[in-house]
Amino acid sequence: MPMRTAQAVAVPAPSIRYAADRAAALPYLRAAIASWREPGATTAGRVNGSIAPDTQPLDAGSRQLLWLKPGPLPNAVSEWIAGGGTVLLDAASAWPSGAGESAAIVPVPLWRNADGVVLVEGARYGRGKVMRWTRALTPQTMPESLEPGFAGQLRNLFEPPREPPSRVMARGFPPTGIR
Fold first, then answer.
1. Residues sharing a CB contact under 8 Å with residue 79, sequence separation 6 or more, in sequence order
2. 3 state SS of 130
């Protein structure tokens, strides 16, 4: 069996679109997303990851989105999700709906806090994934946003942790301390 080399894990780079009244959540999200990069890494050449008001369309290469605007989703965003996009919606955003989707969304818990309270729920939508906060993203309503594990949990929503390898080549790990 040929040995496969480890592949670099892509760092999620979600775009953010927000309503003016949700701008207070941006510092927490920016800090979390910045922590995902290796020290000294640059964002040069990144197609996605822009932060802009909700009136700005998504960049062509965006595959992940944080949508911070209450109310129904624009058709363009619903179609983008159904086409394979991954979105995390504001707690006051409506689930996407479209003529092409036959079944109603039935969300399942994706992230619970230490007390078991659901913080994010989600479901498949077309070829994409839709998730939604269960409460506003403010320290008052979601104190978890100030905890050290917040950035990692947020990343896991967009890029679940990979399973460690179950087999490795022995020559890559010689015994130590044996004489």
1. 98
2. strand
The three-class DSSP label of residue 43 is coil
* Cα distance between residue 86 and residue 114, in whole Å: 25
The C-alpha angle with vertex 125 and arms to 123 and 129, in degrees rounded to 5, equals 60
Place 10 in a pLDDT band, splitting at 50, 70 and 90: low
CA-CA distance, 161 to 179, in Å (whole number)?
A: 38
Tens of pLDDT, residues 51-83: 999 999 998 888 999 999 999 999 999 999 999
User: Is beta strand 118-125 parallel, antiparallel or unpaired with respect to 108-112?
Assistant: antiparallel
Token pair listed for 92? 């006051």
Question: Quick one: pLDDT at residue 96?
Answer: 92
* pLDDT at position 1: 47
pTM of the model: 0.80
- Inter-residue contact 130 to 105 (CB < 8 Å): yes
Assigned token pair, 113:
């806090």
> In this structure, are residues 23 and 90 in contact, taking their beta carbons and an 8 Å threshold?
no
Q: Are 47 and 98 in contact (CB under 8 A)?
A: no
- Contact, 52 vs 2, CB < 8 A? no
Share of the chain above pLDDT 90, in %: 63
Residue 158 and residue 152 in contact, taking contact as beta carbons nearer than 8 Å? no
User: Around 11, how many Cα atoms within 13 Å sit in the side-chain half-sphere?
Assistant: 17
